[in-house]
Task: inverse folding
């Protein structure tokens, strides 16, 4: 009886398990294996070597890109949190029906391809784009401003794509918070601001953490937006992975990919350590 | 009673949500140092009344006073009260000490004094030594005590209790009722207690307000409310009652004779005139049972429920079903069997007569 139930349980888990081992864990291990070799002009990889990692650690260009990647990602994170939280707070206070409509409306932009949206921003920010044409037409600027192909343009583009993830994550947690927490705080003499700082904000930590993680990981893996809005001057780590792949430097691409993964893990760990979503779990509803 | 003794006063308070009136024209006064229960079925407006005192809801009409101050337009955080919810609403990210210290901290009490106040409050609820725990590490009963400590540590003018014992099991609940009562008396706190549990209201309160459809049906001491209910609703909601419809057939100074299903019964304290239709309410424990030849209304035993200390008899009488409670130790209590023919009666003072609506 137990054996059969056990079998059933494994049966349910088996398909996703097989798929993830075959298509994710396996390739990842192979990628890591590749990253530990020299670049070869003819083969996928040459002999054993840590040259690819050494190049990343020693080359100021790579370090600059890594720093730029981190700064960009942190800027997107900070802006998404600062802009997203108040929106989420507002949405969470709406009546249930209006709230689901608002969340649906937030999902709506996600139905438009990132490529389309990136080119949309390019049309707005470009040298002959909407803004420069308007400013020039009004005589406010001497020549077109270099808005496009800048880190700011990348941040703006990513922000508009990723903001909904932040808002939805936080709004869902805020909406499911028992209003009695805030009422208990008020009864104890905390006004609206202190109630927010001492109670609502800490209790929304799970939403903040998942929003930050989603936005951060999607920022790291975004490519189109960065390529279109950043141009050749504002490359990020993903762009280098792509460049290495198209120039058939497979071990280099693999090493960069693992650097990216290490950054992702480190920052994710830092987010969890700072926001500590676990501290509000297990509370009675 | 002078106005100074009144900690909470509601004056003609009405609260409507859209077209629905949750509280209608409620006026009440809660004397200092007493426990006042708001009792009623769900949806009767008792919780809304409590939330109006707290300021979580604004009255549509009327005034709310706490310690003589009109707080109708004062936000909750500037009213002098604290609250214990059924769900406790302990802050999960704060330790027990931080939870209890939250009120003093918000009121600007310094760290040293705060530590002493927290320790005192935790000692009062017998949770000394639990300071560093988190709420999730405590049992339901312990969480309940923390919630209580958090509420009393600020020495509020009024302590609001929103079914605070509802989540506890029966044994723990009765234990907490006694403790709550002792704590309230020791500290001289004024408390408003919302409950749908009539036994709890009777046990805990100095005064009970029975609510129905947003109105207060009757206010009084537990004994008065139970023994002399003003309305049929109160008689039926607070404990069980047997109702008998009858007609007043004779009156004198001591009371009246009422005919119920062809059987005459004397009742004291009847205001209705001769010929009037009335309804008599008699508590099951006031009913007396006798053998088939004894005086009283004839009935047949339908079912007997053994409840330990009491035995409940469900009888079929000429005027409808009758419920009789007897102490287990009463002589002859255990001898009846279903199908037995009996007679039941009650003393003139042990029932209440309602005039028809």
Result:
């Amino acid at each position: 009886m137990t054996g059969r139930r056990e079998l059933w349980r494994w049966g349910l888990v088996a398909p996703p398990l097989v798929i993830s081992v075959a298509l994710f864990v396996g390739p990842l291990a192979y990628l890591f294996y590749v990253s530990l070799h020299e670049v070869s002009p003819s083969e996928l990889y040459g002999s054993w070597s840590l040259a690819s990692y050494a190049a990343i650690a020693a080359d100021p260009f790579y370090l600059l890109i890594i720093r730029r990647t981190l700064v960009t990602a942190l800027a997107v994170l900070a802006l998404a949190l600062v802009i997203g939280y108040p929106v989420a707070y507002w949405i969470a206070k709406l009546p249930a029906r209006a709230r689901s409509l608002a969340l649906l409306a937030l999902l709506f932009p996600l139905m438009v391809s990132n490529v389309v949206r990136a080119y949309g921003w390019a049309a707005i920010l470009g040298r002959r784009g909407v803004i420069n044409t308007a400013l020039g037409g009004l005589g406010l600027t001497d020549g077109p401003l270099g808005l496009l192909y800048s880190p700011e343009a990348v941040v703006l583009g990513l922000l508009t794509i990723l903001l909904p993830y932040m808002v939805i994550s936080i709004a869902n947690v805020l909406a499911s918070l028992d209003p009695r927490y805030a009422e208990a705080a008020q009864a104890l003499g905390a006004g609206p601001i202190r109630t927010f700082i001492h109670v609502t904000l800490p209790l929304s930590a799970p939403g903040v953490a998942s929003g930050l993680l989603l936005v951060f990981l999607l920022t790291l893996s975004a490519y189109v937006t960065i390529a279109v809005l950043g141009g050749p001057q504002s490359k990020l780590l993903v762009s280098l992975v792509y460049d290495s792949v198209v120039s058939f430097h497979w071990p280099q691409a693999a090493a960069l990919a693992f650097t990216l993964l290490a950054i992702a893990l480190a920052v994710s760990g830092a987010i969890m350590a700072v926001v500590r979503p676990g501290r509000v779990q297990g509370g009675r509803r | 009673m002078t106005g100074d003794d009144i900690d909470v006063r509601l004056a003609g308070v009405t609260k409507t949500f859209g077209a629905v009136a949750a509280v209608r024209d409620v006026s009440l006064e809660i004397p200092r140092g007493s426990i006042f229960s708001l009792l009623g079925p769900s949806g009767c407006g008792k919780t809304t009344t409590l939330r109006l005192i707290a300021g979580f809801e604004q009255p549509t009409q009327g005034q709310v006073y706490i310690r003589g101050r009109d707080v109708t337009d004062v936000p909750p955080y500037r009213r002098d009260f604290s609250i214990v919810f059924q769900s406790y609403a302990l802050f999960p990210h704060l330790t027990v000490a931080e939870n209890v210290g939250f009120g003093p901290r918000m009121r600007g009490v310094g760290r040293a004094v705060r530590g002493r106040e927290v320790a005192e409050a935790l000692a009062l609820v017998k949770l000394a030594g639990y300071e560093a725990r988190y709420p999730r590490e405590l049992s339901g009963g312990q969480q309940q005590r923390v919630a209580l400590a958090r509420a009393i540590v600020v020495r509020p003018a009024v302590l609001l209790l929103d079914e605070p014992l509802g989540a506890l099991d029966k044994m723990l609940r009765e234990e907490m009722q006694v403790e709550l009562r002792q704590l309230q008396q020791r500290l001289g706190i004024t408390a408003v207690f919302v409950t749908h549990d009539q036994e709890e209201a009777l046990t805990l309160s100095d005064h009970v307000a029975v609510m129905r459809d947003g109105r207060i049906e009757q206010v009084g001491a537990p004994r008065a409310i139970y023994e002399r209910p003003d309305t049929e609703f109160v008689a039926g909601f607070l404990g069980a009652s047997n109702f008998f419809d009858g007609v007043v057939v004779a009156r004198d100074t001591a009371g009246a004779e009422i005919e119920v299903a062809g059987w005459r019964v004397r009742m004291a304290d009847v205001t209705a005139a001769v010929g009037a239709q009335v309804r008599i309410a008699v508590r099951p424990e006031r009913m007396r049972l006798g053998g088939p030849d004894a005086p009283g209304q004839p009935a047949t035993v339908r079912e007997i429920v053994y409840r330990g200390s009491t035995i409940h008899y469900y009888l079929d009488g000429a005027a409808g079903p009758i419920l009789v409670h007897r102490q287990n130790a009463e002589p002859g209590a255990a001898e009846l069997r279903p199908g037995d023919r009996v007679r039941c009666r009650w003393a003139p003072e042990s029932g209440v007569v309602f005039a028809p609506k």
About this structure: Chain A has a mean pLDDT of 90.
